[in-house]
Amino acid sequence: MFRRREPVPFAFVAEADRFRSNVTPPPRERLGKAQLAARSLVGLTVVAGLAGSLLFGIPALQPNKAPEKSQQSTASEGR
After folding, report:
1. Pairwise CA distance, residues 38 & 19, whole Å
2. Are 45 and 38 in contact (CB under 8 A)?
3. Does residue 31 contact residue 39 with C-beta atoms inside 8 Å?
4. Are 52 and 44 in contact, with CB atoms under 8 Å apart?
5. Which UniProt keywords apply (predicted)?
6. 1 DSSP assignment
7. pLDDT tens digits for 49-63?
8. Are 8 and 14 in contact (CB under 8 A)?
9. Cα angle for residues 53, 56, 61 (degrees, 5° grid)
10. What is the pTM of this model?
C-alpha cells in the first residue's frame, strides 16, 4: 500500500562518515615575532579598553545623592 522511503533525504550525508581521506593537511606555519607581537598588542588593547570602560562606567551607573540645595541659575536669584 505505502512504499517505504529513504529515512534521510540525502543518503550521501548519512554515509559520509565511512569515507576518510588519506591526504593529510599541510603543517601550520609558525608565527613570526612581528605577527606574535601584533596579536599580543591587539589583545592587550582590547583588554585595556574593557578595563577602562569598567573603570569609567561603574561610577557613572551609581545613583547620585540629590543635592541639598536646589540648583538655580544666578540670573533667577535677583527676582
Report:
1. 40
2. no
3. yes
4. no
5. Membrane, Transmembrane, Transmembrane helix
6. -
7. 999 999 998 888 888
8. yes
9. 105
10. 0.47
In angstroms, the CA 79 to CA 77 distance is: 6
Handedness of CA 6, 12, 13, 14 (dihedral sign): positive
* Dist CA 69 CA 48 (whole Å): 39
Query: How far is the C-alpha of 73 from the C-alpha of 61, rounded, in Å?
Result: 26
> Which residue in the block uniquely carries the three cell numbers 512504499?
3
CA angle 44, 45, 51 (to 5 degrees): 90
| Rounded Cα–Cα distance for residues 41 and 47 (Å) | 10
Label each residue of 21-67 as H, E or C. CCCCCCCCCCCCHHHHHHHHHHHHHHHHHHHHHHHHHHHHHCCCCCC
How does DSSP classify residue 70? P
How many other β-carbons are positioned within 10 Å of the β-carbon of residue 58?
A: 9
